Amino acid sequence: MAAEGGGKEMNEIKTQFTTREGLYKLLSHSEYSRPNRVPFNSQGSNPVRVSFVNVNDQSGNGDRLCFNVGRELYFYIYKGVRKAADLSKPIDKRIYKGTQPTCHDFNHLTATAESVSLLVGFSAGQVQLIDPIKKETSKLFNEERLIDKSRVTCVKWVPGSESLFLVAHSSGNMYLYNVEHTCGTTAPHYQLLKQGESFAVHTCKSKSTRNPLLKWTVGEGALNEFAFSPDGKFLACVSQDGFLRVFNFDSVELHGTMKSYFGGLLCVCWSPDGKYIVTGGEDDLVTVWSFVDCRVIARGHGHKSWVSVVAFDPYTTSVEESDPMEFSGSDEDFQDLHFGRDRANSTQSRLSKRNSTDSRPVSVTYRFGSVGQDTQLCLWDLTEDILFPHQPLSRARTHTNVMNATSPPAGSSGTNPGSNGNSITTPGNSVPPPLPRSNSLPHSAVSNAGSKSSVMDGAIASGVSKFATLSLHDRKERHHEKDHKRNHSMGHISSKSSDKLNLVTKTKTDPAKTLGTPLCPRMEDVPLLEPLICKKIAHERLTVLIFLEDCIVTACQEGFICTWARPGKV
Fold first, then answer.
1. DSSP codes joined into one string, 151-201
2. Angle at 258 between CA 462 and CA 265, to 5 degrees
3. Helix (H) or strand (E) holding 502
4. How many CB atoms lie within 10 A of CB 448?
5. Residue-level pLDDT at 511
6. Is the pLDDT of residue 478 over 80?
7. What beta strand segments (E) does 206-333 contain?
8. DSSP letter (8 states) at residue 40
9. How many CB atoms lie within 10 A of CB 9?
10. 220 and 240 Cβ atoms separated by less than 8 Å
11. For residue 212, is the peptide bond before it cis, meaning its omega torsion is within 30 degrees of 0?
């Protein structure tokens, strides 16, 4: 996706880009920064972050913006695409000594034109609750750093709560606080509440209720970011150990895990319907993980350095919804995407109901974006061919192409020409005998699917006795044992978290062992997305990407917050 022409043009910063919706344009008059507009010398300082809140004031200009630059924190009226930014009049400005703001979050429930609750996390571990409209500091948490001395990496209000908030630290710990409670004058004593593979949750043991209410220890190394699911029930965490871990927040149970290709995971976000999670990290990739199937369904390669932020664009994402609990009748062809798992209340099932009656599936596209240390913005479309690799099966149950995004490179040897590229190529072109995916299925139940050298996925859709085929493209020659282990790992099937825990138990110690398992599939085993656009938009590394209704907001480490008007919104 390089720019045309020589090296000079390559380093030019883009001020507009075009997608299928039209032209996105940088609004230079809507740039927010420190009042002097001088680029911030960012060496050794914490990432610039931006938080928005709408205070619903009567003027129709209710957006408020908070951002940190070095030791400073600013709070402005955000005029977006409508009016030029007036940097001479921040509503609030704070300069901190001895510690730097690292992250912040507004409480959207309680925000009014007269008062907002803003949490700010700091590099020395404290968390401050301030009201930048009333200009008062109401509370300081972890003030004596008795709870955690390490940098705050992420702070968020618990969805739907006016008083609970969650704080993650570079120690790998997360703490649940209540704004009404004190932090006590002594270090907290803890009692184990729940333990699982690579995580433990403790309650605070004390005579009177105090903070923190809970302490989560997750993975190894820093906990870099967490995100609540849209319904607030699940919590996705990404850590320096390279793992995504998704928890049921209330029952404190591990729902699923995923491992980066290599290096730490730095950022995470949920699709607007909660069906997919996207992560970014030190492997320069964006990874799309299915919440329902607990597996990687695609990776995206466009960045040339670490990916610092991923975010879905809810305004360009289109999913046609139907009744969430509807289940398609068994007399129609049904594409089961769950590898034998009994889950019917997913978008896939609802969409597959539509797919079963029409030859054309309904249109579904998720748009998400990413920014990185390479100063580039990438936009990605997650389309049907990736989400639903099985096209509706005909009565003859012919093979469908699963990995249509990863066709083998020209000149790759070893593929049987008669197999339409679906065979698993092995050195002697011999194909391992088809193995059933579920323990209950005998070999004889696996029918030949019209292509001699294909491996059938012998999974019977629960509740609907129809076959789901799984064919795999392979780009590289590989050995039997590896193929066998990868394609027939039982990790796909298990819906019990205990099995998933066991999977992590076996692989936690050696990262090399996770490669080629469902935790971390090989590159050639999942579709590789290409970005719709990949543009250099800043001089310094990018640290912010937020999708608003009429614009996209980005920010870089120099402390400039940029507004990109959506097509037709200038």
1. PEEEEEEPTT-SSEEEEEETTSEEEEEETTS---SS--EEEEEEEETTEEE
2. 155
3. helix 497-507
4. 10
5. 63
6. no
7. 214-218, 223-228, 234-239, 243-248, 253-259, 265-270, 276-281, 285-290, 295-301, 307-312
8. P
9. 10
10. yes
11. yes
Do 90 and 67 touch, CB atoms closer than 8 A?
Answer: no
In this predicted structure, the answer to whether residue 99 has a pLDDT above a threshold of 80 is yes
464: its two tokens: 């609907």
CB burial of 262-276 (b: ≥16 within 10 Å; e: otherwise) equals ebbbbbbbbbebbbb
- Report the C-alpha gap between 389 and 399 in whole angstroms: 11
Strand duo 528-529 + 295-301: pairing: parallel
CA distances from 359 to 278, 352, 355, 356 (A): 30, 11, 7, 7
Residue 184 contacts residue 210 (beta carbons within 8 Å): yes
Compute the C-alpha angle 529/530/531, nearest 5°: 120
d(CA 553, CA 566): 10
Question: Distance between CA 494 and CA 458 in Å, rounded?
Answer: 15
Q: Is residue 66 a contact partner of residue 73, using CB atoms and an 8 Å limit?
A: yes
Q: How many CB atoms lie within 10 A of CB 104?
A: 23
pLDDT band at residue 5 using 50, 70 and 90 as cut-offs: very low
Which residues on adjacent β-strands are paired with residue 503? Answer: none
Return the SS3 of 105.
strand
Residue tagged 């085929």 (tokens)? 469
**How many CB atoms are located within 10 Å of the residue 229 CB?**
21
Closest to 100 in 3D by CA, of 151, 147, 143, 63: 151
CA 349 to chain CA centroid, Å, is 22
Give the tens place of pLDDT for each residue, 22-68: 999 999 999 999 999 988 886 778 999 999 999 977 777 789 999 99
Q: What is the arithmetic mean of pLDDT over 497-501? A: 40
Residue 421's nearest CA partner among 475, 377, 466 is: 475
* C-beta separation of 50 from 553 below 8 A: yes
- The amino acid that residue 144 corresponds to is E
The average pLDDT across 502-523 equals 70
Q: Give the bridge partners for 128, in sequence order.
A: 120, 140
Alpha-carbon distance of 341 to 294, in angstroms, equals 11
Sheet of strand 16-19: strand arrangement: 16-19, 22-26, 561-565, 551-556, 542-547
C-beta of residue 183 within 8 angstroms of C-beta of residue 146: yes
Q: Are strands 542-547 and 164-169 parallel, antiparallel or unpaired?
A: unpaired
